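Instructor's aside before we start: the two examples that follow are unrelated to each other. I chose them only because their records fit on one page, so don't look for a connection. First example below.
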Amino acid sequence: MTYIPFSIYGADRPARWLITCDHASNFVPEDIAGGDLGLPTEDMQRHIAYDVGALGTSLRLGELLDAPVICANWSRLCIDPNRGLDDPTLVMRLYDGTIIPANRYVDEIEIQRRVETHYQPYHDALERLAAARKDVVVIAMHSFSPKLKGRAPRPWEIGVLHAPSGDRFGRALIAQLEQEPDLNVGDNEPYNGELHGDSIDQHALRPGRLNALIELRHDEIDTPQSQMAWAGRLAPILEKTLAESGL
């Protein structure tokens, strides 16, 4: 099977929504260190390599919302599609206490090659989808680890990241989620929603598109059943948010 850097599901689905999944895969393409970053299998199954559960949740959410879904098909450890080109963490050499052997001595020539063969084709395809309709709402799906090494446990089941320059939909979504009595909702948790050059910045904030970045704690979506359940829960909440906000 020929590798391509991105997959699109339901390109012709008619909804306003566009679901993106930057960290869908832990796959290492053959052209990057021969397909092996030098990490054991157990590390490649961790959150450092991809967003656990995010792909299945995104695909089901796209089906329920009748919306296109675009996913990056390589591990974030190869080159992170959710970073700006000038971000020093674009290619990670150390992540959550783990050294990435194949990246330890990576040079600018190799980084630029990864940009051209993996990063940029994904972002070009994402922008084409986002630009296909003027009223698009970009929903970026991610997951986060319940706990990083040496850090406190993260109590939120779900977080919504937003930036002041374009947070109308994100804040409305938080308000809807906070009506769910069993959820601890993170407002710009576990990360801040303003990251220069990330996917939302490139494809939503700069062009002025409605958006939200949803982070699900990955022990909430680590089985196919829980991914289906969370997608089923999120779809009506997103629809209600959009309807009631009037955006």
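Example two begins here.
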Amino acid sequence: MSKKVVVISSSPRIGGNSDTLCDEFVKGALDADNAAVKYNLEEIRFHACKACYRCKTPEMKCFQEDGLAEVLDKMMEADVIVYATPVYYYSMCGTLKRFFDRCYPIFRHLENKDYYIITAAGSKNGDVLTGIRDFIGFSKNPTEKAVISGFGDVKSQPELLKEAYDAGFHC
């Protein structure tokens, strides 16, 4: 059965390490006849959450009219969600955190999703996964399927590119 896959890339560098791993994941998902879409948050104009709670309505819509409405709708429809981030100071990048804040209208309505986490860093120090896993944990019946972590230049690591591709193919 074909799955709906949404990949959220938060890399500020299009074609950077975490973004490249996202592309491989998407290739694998598409080759397996899944419906896959990748959103690069750097290409979407969106504002920070204002903590006004106006989104807590049956429509689950933020009052801010920016580029995130489509992304949030696709996440609600998805079977598989991938969150990808470069590692900055041992944590997720600020763009992904700002995105998570804007997921406030829907995060408790994400049910029975499979999750993949992609990270890329210069070293193996730190624990970027805690904040991402905490966010995923707010959804209902989440399943973490895999973590794909790259260190250094991922384009020179064919085994890592294959790992990302295979995860997409078998999602």
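The chain is about 30% helix and 25% strand.
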